[in-house]
Amino acid sequence: MSQPPFDPADLERRILAAIRRGASMEDIAELRPGRMTSPEDAIQALIDGNARFFSGKATRPEADANQRRAQIMGQTPFAAVLACSDSRVPVEIVFDQGLGDLFVVRVAGNVVGESVLGTLEYATEHLHVHLIVVMGHEGCGAVAAALLPEEQLEREPEHLRHLIARIQPCVQSLPPIRDKKARMREAVLNNVRYQVQNLRQQPVIQAAEARGQIRVIGAFYEIGSGAVDFLIDEEDLRP
Ligand SMILES: [Zn+2]
């Protein structure tokens, strides 16, 4: 997908003019560069943004005063991302996206729970995002904890144990892999697949997928390289 060259000064003028004529939030969203209209556009925007990030060409788009002002009227993110709270996985930076672009939920181990689901239902029904990405990452502490023997987890606080218990079913059934790094990667990937399946079974998300509004995909962020691998095909997403 090729986008027209981005001219911030021109955008600023058009946003200001739109504010002056009392344009709606949708009208202003239309002015933003690279307006996403389908799940495929959204996936491509994340692939392109991540490529800018890991190749050291990030634009780190920070809105100026006029663009920020335009956002007071509402938000029109093109994708929702469920990622881990890990401080090394800042979603907007990793995908080189700016203010108002991504609707982000971060929770240790990127697990789906009640609040996460409610947040993603909101993104789907009210913000009309085109994509939901569940993103795991290299060296995830929550997934590593789910691989520990039960007696070691008994000492952990109650709510943390509940969170780990949501990851355990997807990592305990894995075939034995001797290489520790490969084993961890497979565990993280399987957790991502499991959470994607979990989301896709929820009625609101299922219906949005069926009518072609959204796709639910997985991703794996490699801390060392900065690159994100996407799990897009059904084959890649099967736990
Ligand atoms: Zn993590």
Give a written overview of the molecule.
The structure is a single chain. This protein has 239 residues and is an alpha/beta fold. It has a single domain (37-61, 72-237), classed as 3-Layer(aba) Sandwich (Beta-carbonic Anhydrase, Chain A), CATH 3.40.1050. Helices cover 49% and strands 12% of the residues. The protein contains 12 helices and 5 strands. The protein has helices at 8-20, 25-31, 39-54, 65-71, 91-94, 114-125, 141-146, 150-153, 158-172, 180-200, 203-210, 234-237; strands at 79-83, 102-106, 131-137, 215-221, 228-231. The chain is elongated and about 65 Å long. Bound molecules: zinc ion. Zinc ion is lined by residues 84, 86, 109, 137, 140-142.
